[in-house]
Design goal:
Elements (H helix, E strand, L loop, with lengths): L3 H5 L10 H11 L15 E6 L3 H20 L21 H19 L3 E4 L6 E6 L4 H15 L7 E7 L1 E4 L2 H11 L1 H4 L6 E9 L6 H15 L4 E2 L6 E8 L2 E7 L10 H4 L3 H5 L13 E4 L17 E3 L34
Parallel strand pairs: 6-7, 6-8
Antiparallel strand pairs: 1-3, 1-4, 2-3, 5-9, 6-10, 8-9, 10-11
Length: 346
């Protein structure tokens, strides 16, 4: 039996630990040495939303990404640690050979941990972040969506949206401005140009202003080339801004409206399925607010120069058809000199 004096000296030892203690211990056991454990600045990857089943979402994401990743970049290559170099059997007593094998084992173990796709903590519920290495997330996700769009073959059950993340930075306005000036150059710096829109979404963050972020990013795009114009109907590029806690995820994607805002469930639906959708049905909202950039500068027509912010919900992909009822064209089919019905940023 325990000493009663010893029990009395620790009156609070019988209290239950809070749930946060167990959660932190569980996270510490994950990825014991293989890269970051949570979303942080400097990562590239894919932001995936799901519906109340994150574990199943991660399994589907690994299966889908490995399938198309192997198709685009070839299978991952790892060193077989059971394979021994020729003549090593007779060198068991050689210290140098033993040391070399140990170094090879350590290198192989590190390669196995730094996989092409690795799930990390996103910092938001129903959101999974898959860190990528050695690939271009925007090209891989576009390839997946294009294949699903053509075949109409359902690939997943719980995955909703797949947003490529080409760059991350701290979610503070000054840091975002400094990072975006360099990040947006490949698409919008002269002689490159194109029509664009900005989509903003924030989760678990209250210190960022949607209007300020959109205004600053639109100003940066306009400063890179005065011929960059806003188009909310069928833009060539969509600048996606996803903020989770103190991390800002940025990407520039094509065919955002054609691929139903990068929603796998909607892209996989056939025309017959879409004809039965009632636009007045209740739409599930996400964990934050999402906005589109609206042209706020003055135009030649004063009646068209009014600022009219527009909010959209996460799963409203069924309403992205044009007024004429036809689907928008692929970005590759949009002529560069096509005129936008929105205002010039200059």
């Amino acid at each position: 039996m325990a000493d009663p004096h010893q029990q009395a000296s620790h009156p609070e030892s019988g209290k239950r630990k809070s749930k946060a203690v167990y959660v932190q211990a569980k996270r510490a056991r994950r990825c014991d040495a293989g890269g970051p454990r949570q979303l942080e600045p400097g990562l590239q990857g894919i932001l995936i939303t799901c519906n109340m089943n994150e574990r199943k979402c991660v399994e589907e994401a690994y299966s889908l990404l490995n399938e198309y990743g192997d198709d685009m970049y070839g299978p991952e290559k790892f060193t077989d640690k059971n394979q021994q170099p020729p003549g090593s059997e007779g060198e068991e007593d050689d210290v140098e050979a033993a040391l070399k094998r140990e170094v090879d084992d350590i290198r192989t173990s590190t390669e196995m941990k730094l996989r092409r796709f690795q799930s990390v903590e996103s910092g938001a519920n129903n959101v999974v972040f898959i860190r990528t290495l050695g690939i271009e997330p925007e090209k891989l996700v576009h390839h997946i969506l294009q294949d699903v769009y053509k075949t109409k073959k359902k690939k997943t059950r719980v995955i909703l949206r797949m947003i490529p993340v080409s760059g991350t930075c701290k979610a503070f306005l000054d840091d975002m401005k400094k990072y975006a000036e360099t990040f947006l150059e490949p698409w919008f710096r002269a002689p490159n140009k194109g029509t664009f829109q900005i989509v903003y979404k924030s989760r678990n963050n209250s210190h960022m202003s949607r209007e300020e972020v959109i205004k600053e990013l639109a100003g940066i795009v306009g400063s890179l080339n005065s011929e960059n114009k806003v188009d909310l109907t069928n833009p060539q590029y969509t600048v996606v801004v996803e903020i989770i806690k103190t991390v800002c995820c940025l990407s520039v994607v094509k065919d955002y409206m054609l691929f139903r805002k990068y929603n796998l469930q909607e892209v996989g639906k056939s025309a017959k399925d879409l004809s039965h959708i009632n636009p007045k049905q209740a739409v599930l909202s996400g964990n934050g607010k999402e906005s589109h950039l609206q042209a706020g500068n003055k135009s030649s027509d004063p009646a068209k120069g009014k600022h009219n912010p527009q909010e959209i919900t996460e799963n409203s992909e069924a309403q992205v058809l044009n007024d004429g009822g036809t689907e928008p064209e692929l970005a590759s089919q949009v002529p560069e000199d096509s005129k936008s019905n929105e205002n010039d940023l200059t």
